Amino acid sequence: EPEVTQTPSHQVTQMGQEVILRCVPISNHLYFYWYRQILGQKVEFLVSFYNNEISEKSEIFDDQFSVERPDGSNFTLKIRSTKLEDSAMYFCASKFSVRGEKLFFGSGTQLSVL
Amino acid sequence: QQQVKQSPQSLIVQKGGISIINCAYENTAFDYFPWYQQFPGKGPALLIAIRPDVSEKKEGRFTISFNKSAKQFSLHIMDSQPGDSATYFCAALMNRDDKIIFGKGTRLHILP
After folding, report:
1. How far is C-alpha B45 from the geometric centre of its chain's CA atoms?
2. Per-residue pLDDT, A28
3. Residue A2 confidence (pLDDT)
4. How far from the centroid of its chain's Cα atoms is residue A41's Cα?
5. What is the DSSP letter of B32?
6. What confidence tier does B97 reach under pLDDT thresholds 50, 70, 90?
7. What percent of chain A has pLDDT over 70?
8. Positive or negative, the Cα torsion across A58, A23, A77, A89?
9. Handedness of CA B97, A61, B72, B56 (dihedral sign)
10. Nearest CA distance, A17 vs chain B (angstrom)
11. CA distances from residue A111 to A18, A85, A91 in whole angstroms, order as listed
């Protein structure tokens, strides 16, 4: 089965530093997402992205966050100035169509902000 | 209104037994209810899903029961196996929103 690939699997950073989390969605997918999961808590929606623009974002996704699809294969999440509370597992996900029912998740990037 | 409440938080079941996880929602605009399975170190993976126009959906050992009037749905795992040990998330979404609202998850452990 095709996979969503995320790199790195673990990222450790100092508070206030910028981080970029990278994702390679499934090649023919058109809709891209970031979710996060703070340890022991539920998975939370951050942002959806289609046709090179944000479709929807949650209240978590403030001005410190941005997303980009810099080329035909990568989808990135940037956190400009990390805070301790940004420590979480970040999942990228993709699907082929907006009404497509199966959302494919990557294995995640564990971000630790010290 | 946007919440999905899931219980129990953790569950231990003997091999061969039935695992039951329950969820409840408030927002009647939700029209798609998936269950995700997550193994350690992996992302959630779609297990089975249901729309509110049916009361039950079965795929192999996994069954969703849906009670629209009570705004509740549950996952039943028949003949539970040690390989089913994982975290299970119920979820809900509205097609027009395209974002998934997850429950808090249930850690299921099947005793060998």
Report:
1. 12
2. 87
3. 83
4. 17
5. B
6. low
7. 97
8. positive
9. positive
10. 25
11. 12, 10, 11
Chain B residues with beta carbon closer than 8 angstroms to that of A103: 46, 100
User: CA dihedral in degrees (A21, B92, B61, B63; nearest 10)?
Assistant: 180
Tell the residue number behind the tokens 């294995």, with chain if given.
A107
Nearest CB partner across the interface for B43, out of A41, A55, A91: A91
Which amino acid type is present at position A108?
G
Distances in Å between the Cα of A28 and the Cα atoms of A70, A104, B14, B77 are 16, 12, 42, 33
Closest CB from B34, B99, B103 relative to A48? B99
Q: Quick one: average pLDDT of A12-27?
A: 96
Nearest to A42 among B45, B98, B102 (CB): B102
Mean pLDDT of the region A48-58:
92
Instruction: Return d(Cα A7, Cα A76) in angstroms, integer.
Output: 10
Residues of chain A with C-beta less than 8 angstroms from the C-beta of B107: none
- Which one-letter amino acid corresponds to residue A74? N
